[in-house]
Design goal:
The structure is a homodimer of 386-residue chains. The first copy, chain A, is α/β, with parallel strands linked by helices and 386 residues long. Chain A has 2 domains: 3-128, Enolase-like, N-terminal domain (Enolase-like, domain 1); 137-383, TIM Barrel. Chain A is 37% helix and 16% strand. The first copy, chain A, has helices spanning 59-72, 88-95, 107-126, 130-138, 161-175, 189-202, 219-229, 246-255, 269-278, 297-310, 325-334, 377-383; strands at 3-12, 28-40, 43-50, 146-152, 179-183, 208-212, 237-238, 260-262, 287-288, 339-341, 362-364. In chain A, the strands form 2 sheets. In chain A, strands 4, 5, 6, 7, 8, 9, 10 and 11 form an 8-stranded mixed sheet that branches. A 3-stranded antiparallel sheet of chain A has the order 1-2-3. In chain A, helix 7 packs parallel to helix 8 (246-255) and helix 9 (269-278) packs parallel to helix 10 (297-310). The longest helix of chain A is centred in the N-terminal third of the chain and has 20 residues, at 107-126. At the A-B interface, helix 1 and helix 9 of A face helix 1 and helix 9 of B.
Chain lengths: 386, 386
Amino acid sequence: MRITAIHDIVVPIKSEIRNAYISFAEMTASAVAIHTDVIRDGKPVVGYGFNSNGRYAQSGLLRDRFIPRLLAAKPEAVVDETGENIDPFKAWKIMMSNEKPGGHGERSVAVGVLDMALWDIVAKVEQRPLYRVFADRYNSGAYDEKVYVYAAGGYYYPGKDIEGLLDEMQRYLDLGYSTVKIKIGGAPLADDCRRIEAVLRILKPGQLLAVDANARFDRSEALAYAEALNSYELKWYEEPCEVLDFEVHADVAKASKNPVATGENLFSLVDTRNLIRYGGLVKERDYIQVDPALSYGAVEYIRIQAMLKELGWSSRRCIPHGGHQMALQVAAGLGLHGNESYPGVFQPFGGFADGHPVVDGYVKLPDAPGIGIEKKQNLWEVFRGL
Amino acid sequence: MRITAIHDIVVPIKSEIRNAYISFAEMTASAVAIHTDVIRDGKPVVGYGFNSNGRYAQSGLLRDRFIPRLLAAKPEAVVDETGENIDPFKAWKIMMSNEKPGGHGERSVAVGVLDMALWDIVAKVEQRPLYRVFADRYNSGAYDEKVYVYAAGGYYYPGKDIEGLLDEMQRYLDLGYSTVKIKIGGAPLADDCRRIEAVLRILKPGQLLAVDANARFDRSEALAYAEALNSYELKWYEEPCEVLDFEVHADVAKASKNPVATGENLFSLVDTRNLIRYGGLVKERDYIQVDPALSYGAVEYIRIQAMLKELGWSSRRCIPHGGHQMALQVAAGLGLHGNESYPGVFQPFGGFADGHPVVDGYVKLPDAPGIGIEKKQNLWEVFRGL
């Protein structure tokens, strides 16, 4: 088999939301289609990939470096030993040729977009959902029939904060989520505590609240919040501080009774390993949120899982950022803790297959071959012309 | 004052050399010109910037995000309190708006290119060399009249390795360099020792050899080389291992009698701080090689210097990667240890002002306003049409 063409476009995923760190009004994503000459169901197999929210489209890097390298590679350099399917690890090596070590940002997104499309091809050639491929190859055949997802939101509503917040949270609970997440750090600590207490009051047994500071606190703020949050039983306390300041992470992990969650802004195995080595996280309690679509794709994520295992961490401590179908496939196939979800936000990339509602906090995956992009109508509209 | 236009182009800096990690045959760099409405010598001031070697041109990120943000900013958002010059720290904040924390690669290059051009403007408006601006603002007025530079090269010569290597080293010594650097790790340890010993034999008193592994060793190789290199008195042992594997750095720093040097593949304050915190480097002995042109520019480099000072490190332990005029200005103005130099390689961006030879291992800077790009003819050819 061979790759016959690769197309990419830039798509806005703008949203009027704003976290403690950035506005998403100008946010974009890259969408790519990798065409092959393998025929399934009478048509050539095409793989689709996109990037997760929070980092921008990467058309420059895709067109200058990563797409040309894939297209210039000899077919045997990117296919497996059968010659009938892509080997994403070999393709990854081609894409990363002549790339120096270090500097894991932006290019990790570009490679992640292409990696997603390559895995979509792999599963489509095998004519099964991608999570089954992951399970067979990297998880001894085990997979989760349904994946735990939580509803991320809880932004600030100027003027009617508590009321607006509770309306939003109730909407998520009514949708079937059992865990909801709100932002903190955009208001004084006392106000945030009032917001947290208000949400906790509407939760029923079995329902949980997580809070997310989006890396905005300095050491003393992060610790003051940790202490204050110890009064509540939370699902987790997310991104308490500068994402690469492992010293503060370690202080927070020590001060916090609640689980600590972080990792959406780490984009490589080596950065994640540094978090584990130096961040003081507790492997029986805390969560790693690395997003495979932003972090050199599933190839690197599979390596990250091996690294975590070596350091004594279970895959069940991982719950990727992003709220997209690729991370859901990874979560089901590699046996993660679960996956993020942003109900109705970051469209069309956010969210899962149509007709698969969240039930009691879990979502099922479609039986369609590949990632399931064709099974989410508004996302398929982006790709069908590619 | 205001910015009136920003232009960028992509320029090949290809070279037939190959280090232990990548080939430079496809290497490119971005060159930018920032036009202003300030008149000096009868013409509007234009600032020029480019990126250092080893990372690629960044036209995608420049055009999608960083140039539009600068152009969209209100003039008062990027000028200093006099209104008559750029404030690069304010401009930096504009460029980094809506950028999430973490992921310090690629965009650090794009911002570094623009930061260089902004500082070129600052010094041209003040009508003095940039190092004098740095000295007055960030070094209590102190600066170095001449900067220590070393000649980096020493690649492998298939077929006639020792002979070719010695010819190259002798050429550097004849050019006036007192320190030369060769690659290691591309041959077995015993062969590398023979290469090192051959070079040491042609050095005269006061002349030194540094060796560079370009991050290719695993832990055991890095330690085996450290032990073997302990037999020689070297200027330093550079990039012994994976650039973000601080555990191995710490092991090497402990095992090595020679100074350890690293940092060219760290691109932010927080990554550099992690090296200092966890890398086990010795502040009286080792060297930090962060390249300002790849690492969010001089604004971030000035912050890095403040961080190093706080952690007890002197600016004299810093010797930037890259061999370009911007790093030379930074070295002279902030009182660094010195600067890299690649005689004749990575043209037209590598190297210093024409007519400024290296004498006894030191080079002087031109008196021209700004960075001195106009004083290097082959580099000026790139920019004069921009």
